[in-house]
User: Fold this.
Amino acid sequence: MMMKKFSGFPTGKLQVTPLPDLFFSELCPAIDDLAELKVTLHIFWLLARSKQRAQHVTAGELRADRTLMQSLAVDGAQPDEALTRALGAAVARGTLLHLDTEEDLYFLSTESGRRAFEKAAREEKPRGGLAPEPASAHERPNIFVLYEQNIGLLTPMIAEELKDAEQQFPAEWIREAFKIAVENNKRSWSYARKILERWHTEGRKDDAKKRKRWWGDEYDKFVKR
Assistant:
């Protein structure tokens, strides 16, 4: 099959679709299915086209999208099957949140998408009349998202340290350590890591009134911001 050559982007002002930095640093390198990548990008594009639209897309809307379905019909693949596989993979990966209603709603796992998902889960009638299951662990912000939300831009070196920490410490501890770093205006991974290491060796101190004084005084003297 002869490749259709792209004529290039036209001059002048172009509409753009914003993508989080984590898409390029974490998500894209992990996706090994072309259909999953196409569907994920297409949903980002659909949701960014109008600020007035809902924070979700439906399976029916995606199947009716000629541009998307044509892009999935490559190398003899059946586009319906490719779409179903891609959506399932994106949900399993945690990129999308799936609400199993009559329409099959899909939300991006962004802050606004998670809020919209939780609101829809309370309001929508689930298929079969059963109440939707609560959000699973992968629908909560992972350590990379927490870092970028609370500290700053993620670097490859920090990403490796965060992966190790995620295996070593409970998710609740990690969230709390980031929270303490923000409360004490010590927005650095080294500060949060020292808190986790101290909890690991000496036990976690849960007294909220003592927490800020304890960590603020204890680590100010040797943790650099």
Q: What stands out?
A: DSSP finds eleven helices and three strands in the chain. The radius of gyration is 21 Å.
